[in-house]
Design brief:
By secondary structure, the chain is of the alpha+beta class. Helices cover 45% and strands 18% of the residues. The termini are far apart.
Length: 420
């Protein structure tokens, strides 16, 4: 398998990877614009825009969009993250031209009918309400807010209900005009695909778009704070964050091996100490999530009101212990988990197309799998311990708590314990 890349004169990039023996294909348009690219008064508009893409175009009704893809047995979807909006489809190889035509239509020619805006506004307000009623969902939005207070990166992707209630057709069109420039678009495909045919179609569908500059993105500043929401729930939901490396950092893969070792599976430190030995929770995990210029190590667990103090302090103790007491076997196991997860995931055309798009948007190239695996393999015991020490010693953390959290230690106490 080999990666093929082509850039149109206006800056739009086309990347594809043929997967021999694969009968289906994933194709999509990844836009380098998401929640963190919104101004405060726009918070939630990127997500609203993603919803509206499926509500009709000049050529297709909302029903026609769904029918054309499902008539050939495929599916079409989209998502909005803090740095990206993606519109993608999965179809059989012969139907890639249809899927690409539909995707171009919904992105470039959305109707934004007033009646459909009102319908989708109601859907999104219900989505916001559902998130607020789901503690182990909303806790991560609050943690993001605590980590990056007063910044675009700290705001929720869905946006506050009062903002969503007021968005107009002009607001949607303005965000497109500001951010959907060809230089921020990546057309990615994987599976049963023909690169030359996709490039030719991309030139017809997107080649007319004029190249234009886009606004600068606000740099992120991890400053840390605490958000505590008391509510009579069955559990206290606990989420802690430390600043971790972004995509450009040389510590990127070390941070991911560290998070896997700490809380990435049943053999991880947090799972063994907090769940298996102490029985303090059902769910506990850690993950490292990078952004372009920063990242977060996130630890999450849910526990009873009487156990939250022990759980929080044990979490800090494990973060400290891994700075000096880590075995080569643990590091090797974490590396193996990362490699297997990467390679197993890439058996899917959808995962492979997304990887191509994200790497190209971040690095301007697609590193080979052998390069990625080599960087994972390079993380050894000494490298990980050094990174863990620097992570624990940085002095700032963010904390979000939801539920009967009166007995939970304050963030200042946990930061002092981490630095001790």
């Amino acid at each position: 398998m080999s990666v093929n890349l082509h850039e149109l004169p206006n800056g739009l990039r086309v990347v594809s990877e043929r997967m021999p023996g694969c009968e289906s294909a994933a194709v999509g348009l990844w836009v380098d614009a998401g929640g963190r690219h919104e101004r405060a008064e726009q918070n939630g508009v990127a997500h609203f825009l993603e919803h509206m893409a499926f509500k009709g175009t000049a050529r297709r009704s909302a029903l026609k969009i769904a029918e054309e893809i499902e008539d050939v047995g495929g599916y079409i979807n989209a998502y909005t993250s803090r740095e990206t909006t993606a519109y993608y489809a999965r179809v059989l190889g012969a139907d890639v031209p249809l899927a690409l035509d539909v995707i171009a239509d919904i992105v470039l020619e959305p109707a934004f009918a007033e009646s459909e805006i009102e319908v989708e506004r109601g859907v999104i307000l219900q989505e916001i309400g559902q998130a607020l009623d789901t503690p182990d969902d909303i806790i991560f939005d609050w943690l993001q807010e605590a980590a990056y207070p007063g910044q675009a990166l700290g705001r929720t992707i869905l946006g506050p209900a009062e903002r969503v209630a007021g968005f107009t057709r002009a607001d949607l069109a303005r965000f497109v005009a500001e951010h959907y420039a060809p230089g921020r678009l990546v057309l990615s495909a994987a599976g049963a695909v023909d690169h030359d045919a996709i490039v030719a179609q991309a030139e017809r569908l997107f080649g007319h778009l004029p190249a234009r500059p886009v606004p600068q993105t606000e740099s992120a500043r991890f400053s840390g704070s605490e958000k505590r929401v008391s509510k009579p729930l069955e559990q206290v939901h606990f989420a802690l964050a430390l600043e971790a490396p972004g995509y450009a950092s040389g510590d990127l893969y070390t941070s991911q091996v560290h998070a896997t070792l700490l809380g990435g599976g049943m053999s991880s430190r947090l799972f063994q100490e907090i769940r298996e030995k102490r029985g303090l929770c059902y769910t506990v995990f850690a993950s490292a999530g990078p952004y372009v210029d920063t990242g977060m190590l996130t630890v999450y667990a849910g526990t009873g009101a009487e156990d939250i103090g022990d759980l929080a302090r044990l979490t800090i103790d494990e973060l400290r212990r891994v700075t000096t007491d880590v075995t080569a076997q643990e590091v090797a196991r974490a590396r193996a988990q990362m490699k297997a997860g990467l390679l197993m995931g890439l058996e899917s055309p959808s995962a492979r197309a997304e990887r191509l798009a994200r790497l190209l948007a971040i690095y301007g190239r697609v590193p080979g799998l052998d390069e990625t695996v080599a960087r994972i393999e390079a993380v050894d015991r000494a490298t990980l311990a050094d990174y863990a020490g620097r992570l624990a010693g940085q002095g700032q953390a963010a904390l979000a708590l939801y539920g009967p959290a009166d007995r939970a230690p304050a963030l200042a106490e946990l930061q002092d314990r981490l630095a001790a």
